[in-house]
Amino acid sequence: MVLVIVIIGLLYSSPNLYGRDPAIQVSGAKGATADLAILDKVTKVMSDSNIELKSSELDKDQILIRFKDVDSQLKAQDILKDALGDGYISAISMAPATPEWLKSLGGSPMKLGLDLSGGVHFTMEVDMTTALNKSMETMVQDFRSDLRGEKIRYKTIRRVAGQDKVQVVMRTAELKDTAERFLKDRYRSYIFSNDRSNDLAFVVGLSDLKVKEIRDYAIKQNETIIRNRVNQIGVAEPNVQRQGAERIIVQLPGIQDTARAKEILGATATLEFRLVDANSDVRDAAAGRVPPGSEIIMHRQGYPVLLKKRIILGGTHITGAQSGLDEYQRPQVNIQLDSKGGSKMSAFTKTAQGKSMATVFIEYKPSGKKDKNGKALPPIKVEEVINVATIQSRLGRSFRITGIDNPAEAHNLSLLLRAGALVAPIQIVEERTVGPSLGKENIESGMTAVVLGFAFVLAFMLMYYKAFGMVANLALGVNLVLIFAVMSLIPGAALTLPGIAGIVLTVGMAVDANVLIFERIREELAEGRSPQQAIHEGYNSAFSTIMDANITTLIAAIILFAVGTGPIAGFAVTLAIGILTSMFTAIVGTRAVVNMVWGGKRLDSLSI
């Protein structure tokens, strides 16, 4: 068993010996895609510039070019920026050089954190004010739809100015009681109260629990959507996690050019479908006489469109989006809705045939300003009408939108909608870039610390415990191999600089168990027991002490991982893995070697 585990450990830790190649990753920007033609162009540009390539390949609309040294990589980066223009992003990265046969067995090197591989770090802040505003708007729309569905006639339903409350005004006292009972039964987490200013009205507010739920939902959904968008960028080892009540940390190891990352991560694109107000004159509205319940939004071609404020359907119901061309070879995006969205669209268009419906594109752009406390001000909401179409028939869960300028824009819009519309806008409040040269220095410094720590421990154990010290040193070497193997196999684990500190600490702690065992063997020999009895009692007696000591340390590591972020979590991961592997090598591994060398023999003394 020990031999099999050691062989597996050697196999899956070996990819780390092959290192990483300096590389450049080429991907399309603003809807463009990298294809074989771009690959040929890149190869020709490199050849004309006398830059020798190690290899080049096209995979999933991205080109990966490997170089023999960093100098060639940096030189090629400048040349590619000029040759490819703004349509493509060329990002510096370090690509694993694992052989294909090892890849086929599932082998891959340890993922490196930002401080070791270089890359970009974003701190993103979620606009909670907008999240609450959107929830209030949804509440108003839901109340109207529910009361209409129950055929309960209301006078007005609107948000109370400056408050997180909705006022529902009914036509009679009887209808008020009926509506209040119905909504109370349907929305149990809301707070209902009488409106002192109007006997025919009641007010609905959000409980503290509901507000917390909305805020948590905004963070969790945005975190999930950002993770989906990171996958669209093609980063191999991203780190996306929540920080505090309103912020999300995004780390993209290996990426140096932040343009593509910011373009996708910061985009807050979504769609709304609204009815065109055909009963009012748009010229009067443009002159300032906007009818109640309507508003003016500019068409992207520059003219005003008068729309109803009521939202037929929002982007949160969009589950899929694919770009393509219609029968006239014009760009279009095919939209798929979830079941609730499909029901809403079907119910609305059933009685709205012949009316005009507008598709409104909404984007939140950073204001670039901060308040007196240094907190970023809310982003600026930008709305424009993409197209206006007449509803010809009843629509369901699938339909299409047109009026898009070009195929690249259609592709980019479909990508953002497919990744998900952010529940609330986000702003990048902090951005850091770590260069690959600094990461290389960190790796070299960290490995030097590991080697020195390992060497001093080896020397001490060999001098103090002689032959048994050699057994402990062998177990310590196997322990390091197993740590690297486990770190390479765990998908979400990444080695960071604090993680290397955890390995150095593990090197020192791993021999603790052997020290306890060997000292107990010495005590048994001093009391006159035979060498075989001393070995047996040494391992048996020390086992409970070793378990207690390691379990308490493991509990501390688990707590650090659970509550810590970034460097602390990286340290906790390597520490926990090191504890588990050291218990195996120090107890089971050394016992196997001791049994093999000294077991079943008549011994007068032990080299301990």
Automatic annotation (TrEMBL):
Matching Gene3D superfamilies: 3.30.1360.200, 3.30.70.260, 3.30.70.3400, Multidrug efflux transporter AcrB transmembrane domain (1.20.1640.10)
Transmembrane segments: 446-465, 472-494, 500-518, 539-562, 568-594
Cellular component annotations (GO), alphabetically ordered: plasma membrane
Superkingdom of this protein's organism: Bacteria
Family according to the record: Belongs to the SecD/SecF family. SecD subfamily.
Function: Part of the Sec protein translocase complex. Interacts with the SecYEG preprotein conducting channel. SecDF uses the proton motive force (PMF) to complete protein translocation after the ATP-dependent function of SecA.
Name of the protein described by the UniProt record: Protein translocase subunit SecD
Organism of provenance: Pseudoalteromonas denitrificans DSM 6059
Gene name of the encoded protein: secD
